[in-house]
Amino acid sequence: MLQNDxxxxxxxGLPTERTxxxxxRQAGRILPEYRAVRARLSGFKELVExxxxxxxxxxxxxxxxxxxxxxxxxxILVVPEAMGLTYEMVxxxxxxxxxxxxxxxxxxxxxxxxxxxxxxxxxxxxxVTKRELHGRVPLIGFAGAPWTILAYMVExxxxxxFSKARRLLYxxxxxxxxxxxxxxVTTIAYLQAQVxxxxxxxxxxxxxxxxxxPAHYHEFSARYIARISEALAPLVPVTVFxxxxxxxxxxxxxxxxxxxxxxxxxxxxxxxxxAPGKTLQGNLDPCALYGTPEQVKAATEAMLxxxxxxxxxxxxGHGVYPDTPAENVKVFVQTVKAWxx
Length: 341
Prior knowledge:
CATH class: Alpha Beta
Keywords: Cytoplasm, Decarboxylase, Lyase, Porphyrin biosynthesis
Strand content: 5-15%
CATH architecture: Alpha-Beta Barrel
Subunit structure: Homodimer.
Number of domains: 1
Number of strands: 9
Family: Belongs to the uroporphyrinogen decarboxylase family.
Site (Transition state stabilizer): 75
InterPro entries: UROD/MetE-like_sf, Uroporphyrinogen_deCO2ase_HemE, Uroporphyrinogen_deCOase
Strand order of the largest sheet: 1-4-5-6-7-8-9
Helix content: 40-55%
């Protein structure tokens, strides 16, 4: 039994005494506790792949920030690595794939990953975290949306345009679908295994949704997210977050996913009109947390007013930035908890 089940109730569309709150990337460099753990290690991947340490930093924001949920410390790129495409995390530059997907032969070489065999360290981290939380708050599992994973596998690194990945959709759509199929099957099995290991709900991150035109998003992303949602929704509540793709609400409105995440450029009132009955999550601009405490409080209250009229999970419109003052994050959390609008 959970001592604090506000997030789960909100994600199910049930009444809550107040708005639950957590932050994307809440476990990270905003916390000195995290920086202390990271300083002892060779790098990001060692932290992700060491279950006890991943569990420790997952729980840190529950203690330090008093948020209403923990989200397992991991990375969306563990999925392509489990499929046979190794990535590196380069300091100050981000992810890098020494090998990329260029041909049908490359796709054929990829395996559909077995979660227990190829992603066991994430599942172990979930089990340890679940045990150490002692039911204080729900535990969120997650994965990247297939399109976002494809974008990295084809491009090889972060990009402003992801032109190589987008070119694939135009020049070789059949090959793109073959790759998306393998990613989707792997992701469904991975998220199901996360639930078995202790995740109380799951979120699908489509970080690069906004670089696709709407027709391509529908064909190459939304349909695969729908399959993931259909497979997971009978088990736990599902949240979908498609950054920069306001047009995706039309797809998500009819999806089994119960919660729709909003970035800071979306109107909660408009999304409520398009997707009545859904729980909404978001959507404070992460840069608002650079203001004074008074400005953070005012911006948070303004955001909360915009979400009136339906179930809401307070969050940012994207991940918290690593140089954000931790005290301002606490103001954000405390303001949400005090809100009774």
